[in-house]
Design brief:
- The chain has 86 residues and is of the alpha+beta class.
- Helices cover 21% and strands 14% of the residues.
- The protein is elongated.
Length: 86
Amino acid sequence: MLYSLGNRRFYAVASWPAPQPVIVEHETATGLEARMYEAEMTRVTRRETPAPAPAAPPPSDRRGGARSQAPAAAPQHPYPSRRRVA
């Protein structure tokens, strides 16, 4: 539940899955409670089914990025090796 000081209204956002957010509002907390009940009953009587879960994302590596399809290369040192010259 939220209260807007500028609008002087109470707002509630439904936590159930829906194609679009379900938001109800009223000037009083009691009125908002009635609107919340109406929204819940509307959902029950319509027998809205929850949205299907999104497809699983592709597996990622430990760094959080997507795995590369390129073969792994040997690591390269950022500086060339220093040889002693006699």
